[in-house]
Specification:
251 residues, alpha/beta, Rossmann fold, six-stranded parallel β-sheet, three-stranded antiparallel β-sheet, binds fructose -6-phosphate, hydrolase, Glucosamine-6-phosphate deaminase, Glc/Gal-6P_isomerase, NagB/RpiA_transferase-like
Length: 251
């Protein structure tokens, strides 16, 4: 697709159609920059219902009712950052997803990275996803390291939600959300690759040249835990949305 905006529109159309068809009860959401145009495009479709059930310009509309009953699960959270801190993924999801889309906050879940017993919190998160009937559609970004969620290179393909150490490259990349790189936590809680692979459909979004290498390794490289995102090749229903720059290293 030509650019991030077009990717966001494509993703929003797809999500809107699944919602309208009653085929989306549980949405997996990612933080970071990549999905933001999709969340914005989706927000613009809310209640844009015209006579033909479409928003302005013919794009599929999204009803408020469908969003109010939608359950959402975030992929990850930093360890040790309280949920009310602006850098926390709790705060990001609240602002960019829950509020923007008018979701019911009690149906939006983010791993508890500030829990005292992190192992118990991880088990509980897996249980919450299972109790919701599993994720129907998972939105994903990809890190320069090839990570999905915060599953850094060498993550087990069958891993479940757990504590991980962030790669130095990821801490550098995410320093832009903190006052300095030293402030970026060393650890995170992330859904495992096994957890992500259980989703009914994957929608991976990447744009910009800095993603080209990781995208090429994920889409055309060998299946290897050294590029965790290469596991998408094994998923039965994975869509990869790219701009020209992110696609530039594909064969
Ligand atoms: C975020 C997440 C990460 C990001 C990835 C890309 O919840 O799980 O895998 O999707 O680091 O980040 P951006 O989109 O900021 O380039």
């Amino acid at each position: 697709l030509p650019d991030a905006q077009a990717i966001g529109e494509w993703a929003a159309d797809h999500i809107a159609r699944r919602l309208a068809a009653g085929r989306l009860q549980v949405l997996g959401v990612a933080t970071g920059s990549s999905p933001l145009p999709a969340y914005d495009a989706l927000a613009r479709r809310i209640d844009g219902t015209g006579a033909e059930g479409s928003a302005e310009g013919g794009a599929p509309a999204v009803s408020r009712e469908a969003l109010e009953t939608l359950t959402a699960f975030a992929l990850d959270e930093y360890v040790g950052i309280e949920p009310d801190r602006p850098e926390s993924y709790h705060a990001v999801i609240r602002e960019e997803v829950t509020e923007k889309l008018g979701l019911d906050p009690s149906r939006v879940h983010v791993p508890e990275g500030a829990a005292e017993d992190l192992e118990a919190a991880c088990r509980h998160y897996e249980q919450l996803i299972a109790d919701a009937g599993g994720v129907d559609l998972q939105i994903l970004g990809i890190g320069a390291t090839g990570h999905l969620g915060f599953n850094e290179p060498s993550s087990s393909f069958s891993s479940r939600t757990r504590v991980k150490t962030l790669a130095p490259q990821t801490r550098r990349d995410n320093a832009r959300f903190f006052s300095s790189e030293d402030e970026v936590p060393l650890h995170c809680v992330t859904q495992g690759l096994g957890t992500i692979m259980d989703a009914g459909e994957l929608l991976l979004i990447a744009y910009g040249e800095h993603k080209a290498e990781a995208v090429a390794r994920a889409v055309e490289g060998p299946l290897t835990s050294m590029c965790p995102a290469s596991i998408i090749q094994w998923h039965h229903d994975a869509v990869v949305l790219l701009d020209e720059a992110a696609a530039s290293k594909l064969e």
